[in-house]
Design brief:
CATH superfamily of chain B: P-loop containing nucleotide triphosphate hydrolases
Bound molecules: adenosine-5'-triphosphate, magnesium ion
Strand order of the largest sheet of chain B: 6-7-8-3-9-10
Number of strands of chain A: 21
CATH architecture of chain B: 3-Layer(aba) Sandwich
Radius of gyration of chain B: 17 Å
Largest sheet of chain A: 10 strands, mixed
Number of helices of chain B: 6
Largest sheet of chain B: 6 strands, mixed
Largest interface: A-B, 31 and 34 residues
CATH class of chain B: Alpha Beta
Structural class of chain B: alpha/beta
Number of domains of chain A: 4
CATH topology of chain B: Rossmann fold
Oligomer: heterodimer
Helix content of chain A: 55-70%
Distance between the termini of chain B: 31 Å
Strand content of chain A: 15-25%
Radius of gyration of chain A: 33 Å
Chain lengths: 787, 233
């Protein structure tokens, strides 16, 4: 009998229950999809890194020939001409280059024991494939660390063979045996290769890791040396058996900057902190954590709603329950049907979510592998995942439901037979008392109906706040990728960048061209930075703080990017030590430019030239509005190509973002809707009574719906500052912990749209609820009055 | 205000079962009349009252109040009509649990054309000491008096009372009935009152008895008594 009663009560709420089901399904879906998707990458990735002996840390070093290097070279190999960089030295005197390299490396191993290191050399070449400029980073095969790994085919055995990445090949419809024409020479693709130090194809300073127009590649050693492009290098290292990460951190990371022997080192990064090699670790952890967090978040809303619904249903039946209790029913007999039906509802929803999640895991994994250069493996279902996705939330929902029921039932029958009203002056009534006194009863009711039942009101407020936050959060993520990369190129007018050759003097700038110094490895307070020397009156590379042109602030000091400031915590007014090669300079940070990619710093070109050469006029790069002839430069880069590349990569990101945003908005909307419907239904009896007395619909709306609407709007407005603060917090956290800058942005229209969405949903919910209520006749309503 | 019923029937259909709660009732209640509806439980008293007051629609028949056909009105017009003319007291007290005594009465006053003052009416029903209490802090009789005050404060032209004294002791019941009688005398308020207690009929102008949905008796009371004089039985 009791089962029937509970069943009928629930049946009346079927829309809400259905929406609740959607939320519960989503929570197990997200967890399952993320967990299996990430798992399908994690296991094969770990094997691959083991087999290919992935570096545990990477050392970046200066290309400049520093004083020590020069002294060493004078003693051991005496370079014939005057060269300033090691890459230039390799072209002219390769053995001298290797001697200096060996010297640098022996300084490292001499200073720090229990590590093995190996030089990693690469050359970047550009070539045309079906009309687009593509970039290949040719890595030289190593012997111990960061070995090549073939997902298909073999390593090049002759000079006219090349191995490229499988993702790149797929995206460009290339297969083994096909031919690529690079720098006028035909190469046959011999295999698909992966390198463990590049799990992400970050081949430039920007955060571009598009796999359609760039790839890692492998030549034979001879062919590698033959290609006449300046060499790039870093050092990969692994720990010996007895060294732990902790020891490495204290022994090496904490003091290499102070060590004189490490004069040439710009940074030492553990793989897990290194985007190009270790981002995948963060991604896997992050993916697992995000999946768990998101689903906990969603499940907690679901649990919250279950709690509200259960207590609402019970409250509306307190009279009946009181009578059952007074008749001698045991608590467990009354509880059982509720718990039974909660389980009946939640279990299929969770299982559906799990099942859909397993289906989504494969495409999810493949989306990952469009970015990450990793071998792919099959997805295996596990008991553990099922347990976390289905059993754990089910248990929670049941426990919470049981707890609420238990609490209500533990009251004495006589208490249950009376309605629950807080007559005690509470916080709100005290504050509002004076104000309310002067109002007409209708106005007064608007507030009183809410304040006098503080628990329900609080639930309403908390739920709405949650929804508001979720919606605002989603909005602030819109266009996050644009802000990260594209905005920078949109705000600047240099369409081409030409890097000057070492041996010849760079062209003098004409008309729309400007001289620039770009130094990839400068240090700001020992933090590695990409330093750019700009003219203080630059016309084609202006710097903006929000919308204000701050370019001429360069006259007063250093301007850093927003991301550099977030990641390293530099502020305007800080005085920092700028180190470039052997030279250094104390300089004040005068402005922060709204640029979200890379740890960059801008300085007045004249000061930088003076620092480097003791005279003005030095430059190594030309920024130009018009096209530059590739003959006169080492490389000419078109910023449009970068933007194109970024946009390609962005579509996928945008899609993921879009899904996240839609999911958040849907959940927010469901919360608003359910709470509204429940709130109005809660007032079902009041509404009927007002009607009987002769209040018209307008007045009733004003009293009951109006009150909630007002408070809902207040909540949405007050959620705005909270949301902004938490975005700032989150941004800082991400920046400091993961070196990733999330440019959340809040603008007024986000708030306005959120409130409009809220009002629409509110009226929709109110309309639905009222229609449901109007089906019950007034006289029946009057009879339903309990107590 | 006068009320006219012509061939009014109410049939509740629940699946296969049809309940004829009111069968072809035809009667007229004059302005200022104090009518008592008597009849056994389930005889259709409440149904009749609800139909007369426009809370529910008849299945067939015409109801006219002061020349206006309320059985044709839509819900908006009915609301307006109730607001300007009618007062209700129910078997259940139907109070707003979140409002105290004074506020509950104010709810009635707010929508009236010529209301009485709240304090006056509360004094009349003898609840002045309880004015700031909430419904759950009152006894059943006190709650019923609040709901009477809420109806009375509107100064309605017709009062519909469904067992207003069912839960009250003799003295309190007489006081409450006295209030209604006073209202009836002073303002010519038409009153229709349902009760199980036949002795209350002695204070009415007219007594209508129902049985199984049919009017079985309808007569004027020649020896009308004051509420305080009723011999409670
Ligand atoms: N909403 C309804 N649906 C179906 N049948 C109803 C409904 N309301 C009342 N009835 C039936 O109509 C008949 C008359 O009911 P009504 O409430 O008018 O009786 P009453 O004379 O007021 O009884 P009481 O003195 O016990 O209050 C009863 O048989 C009842 O079962
Ligand atoms: Mg009745």
């Amino acid at each position: 009998m009791l089962f029937k009663n509970v069943f009928r009560t629930l049946k009346k709420q079927y829309t809400q229950l259905l929406l609740l089901g959607v939320i519960i399904t989503l929570s197990s879906f997200i967890y399952t999809a993320m967990d299996y998707g990430v798992g399908g990458i994690k296991v094969p990735a770990e094997e691959y890194f083991e087999v290919a002996n992935q570096e545990d840390f990477a050392i970046s070093m200066m290309d400049f020939m520093l004083e020590e290097d020069l002294m060493y070279s004078v003693l051991h190999c005496m370079p014939s001409e005057e060269v300033y960089t090691l890459s230039a030295l390799k072209d002219t005197n390769s053995s001298c280059y290797y001697k200096i390299m060996d010297h640098r490396m022996s300084l490292i191993t001499g200073t720090y024991s229990s590590i093995s290191i190996e030089l990693r050399e690469y050359k970047d070449i550009f070539y045309d494939l079906s009309g687009d400029t593509h970039k290949l980073r040719i890595l030289k095969e190593n012997e111990e660390i960061n070995l090549s790994f073939f997902t298909k085919g073999d390593a090049p055995s002759i000079d006219s063979e090349i191995a490229v990445g499988e993702t790149y090949a797929k995206l460009n419809n290339l297969d083994i045996g096909d031919t690529l024409t690079v720098e006028g020479k035909d190469y046959r693709i011999s295999g698909f290769v992966l390198f463990p130090d590049y799990s992400l194809a970050i081949l430039s300073s920007g955060l571009v890791f598009d796999n359609e127009t760039q790839s890692l590649a492998l030549f034979t050693d001879a062919e590698f040396e033959r290609i006449s492009v300046p060499v790039g290098f870093h050092i990969g290292g692994v720990f010996d058996n007895n060294l732990t990460v902790k020891e490495f951190e204290t022994k090496v990371l904490d003091n290499y900057k102070d060590s004189d022997n490490m004069y040439f080192v710009t940074s030492i990064l553990l793989t897990e902190h290194n985007m190009r090699s270790g981002a995948i670790y963060g991604e896997i952890e992050g993916g697992e954590a995000t999946g768990l967090m998101l689903s906990i978040l969603i499940a907690s809303i679901a649990i919250l709603i279950v709690g509200i619904m259960v207590s609402k249903i019970l409250q509306s039946q307190r009279g009946a329950i009181g009578i059952l209790k007074s008749m001698g029913y045991k608590n467990s007999e009354i509880t059982l049907p509720y718990v039974f039906f909660i389980a009946i509802l939640a279990f299929p929803a969770l299982v559906t979510g799990y099942f859909l999640g397993t289906l989504a895991a494969e495409p999810f994994k493949n989306a990952f592998l469009l970015f990450y250069l990793l071998p792919s493996g099959p997805i295996n279902q596990t008991i553990g995942t099922f347990f976390v996705a289905v059993i754990v939330p089910l248990t929670f929902i049941l426990i919470l439901g049981y707890y609420i029921i238990k609490r209500i039932l533990s009251q004495k029958p006589v208490v249950l037979l009376n309605p629950q009203v807080s007559s005690k002056a509470n916080f709100f009534t005290k504050i509002m008392g004076k104000y309310l006194k002067r109002l007409k009863i209708t106005r007064k009711l608007q507030h009183l109906l809410l304040y006098r039942n503080i628990t329900k009101f609080m639930v309403f407020l908390i739920g709405m706040f949650y929804a508001a936050f979720l919606i605002l959060f989603s909005f602030s993520m819109v266009g996050i990728m644009d802000r990260t990369i594209i905005d920078y190129y949109d705000n600047t007018d240099h369409n081409y960048i030409g890097y000057c050759k070492y041996d010849t003097v760079c062209d003098l700038p004409t008309g729309s061209q400007e001289t620039v110094i770009e130094l990839p490895s400068a240090l700001v307070d020992d933090e590695e930075t990409y330093l750019v020397g700009l003219k203080t009156d630059s016309k084609i590379h202006k710097l903006y703080d929000k919308n204000n042109d701050v370019t001429n602030e360069l006259e007063n000091g250093l301007i850093i990017t927003k991301s550099f400031s977030l990641v390293k915590g530099f502020k305007i007014g800080d005085t920092v030590l700028l180190e470039v090669g052997n030279n250094s300079l104390e300089i004040e940070i005068v402005s922060i430019t709204t640029e979200y990619s890379g740890n960059k710093a801008y300085i007045d070109i004249d000061s930088l030239s003076d620092l480097l050469t003791r005279s003005t006029g030095y430059y190594n790069t030309i920024y130009s509005e018009t096209e530059l002839s590739p003959d006169n430069y080492v490389i000419v880069i078109s910023t449009n190509d970068i933007v194109d590349q970024t946009q390609r990569m962005q579509t996928l990101f945008d899609m993921m973002m879009f899904v996240t945003i839609i999911v958040s908005i849907v959940i927010g909307a469901i919360v608003v809707y359910i709470l509204t419907v429940m709130t109005i239904e809660d007032n079902f009896y009041n509404i009927s009574l007002f009607k009987v007395i002769g209040y018209n619909d307008k007045e009733i709306d004003k009293m009951i719906i109006g009150g909630y609407l007002i408070y809902g709007i207040i909540i949405f407005i007050s959620a705005i500052p909270t949301a902004i603060l938490s975005f700032i917090g989150l941004q800082l956290l991400m920046a400091r912990m993961y070196n990733v800058v999330m440019p959340f942005e809040f603008s007024l229209w986000h708030g306005v749209v959120a409130i409009v969405i809220y009002i629409i949903l509110f009226y929709l919910g109110a309309y639905v609820a009222k229609r449901k209520l109007s089906r019950i006749s007034l006289q029946e309503a009057m009879k339903m009055y309990q107590i | 205000m006068s009320i006219k019923l012509e061939d009014v029937s109410k049939i509740y259909v629940m699946g296969e079962v049809e309940t004829h709660a009111v069968k072809k009732a035809t009667l007229e209640i004059k302005k200022g009349e104090f009518v008592v509806l008597l009849g056994p439980s389930g005889s259709g008293k409440s149904t009749m009252l609800n139909i007369c007051s426009g809370l529910d629609n008849p299945t067939s028949g015409v109801i006219t109040i002061d020349g206006e056909v309320i059985s044709d009105m839509n819900s908006k017009e009915l609301t307006k009509f109730r607001r300007d003319n009618l007062g209700f007291i129910f078997q259940q007290y139907n109070l707003l649990q979140t409002l105290n005594v004074k506020e509950n009465v104010e709810v009635g006053r707010e929508v009236s054309l010529l209301p009485f003052t709240v304090a006056e009416v509360i004094e009349q029903v003898g609840l002045t000491p309880q004015i700031d209490k909430y419904p759950f802090q009152l006894s059943g009789g006190e709650q019923q008096r609040v709901s009477i005050a809420r109806a009375v404060v509107k100064n309605p032209k017709i009062m519909f009372c469904d067992e207003p004294t069912g839960a009250l002791d003799e003295d309190t019941a007489k006081e409450v009935l006295g209030i209604l009688q006073k209202l009836n005398k002073m303002y010519e308020t038409t009153i229709i009152l349902i009760t199980h207690n036949p002795s209350i009929g002695s204070m009415a102008d007219r007594i209508i008895k129902l049985n199984s949905g049919e009017v079985v008796e309808d007569y004027q009371n020649k020896t009308k008594l004051d509420a305080s004089e009723i011999s409670w039985g």
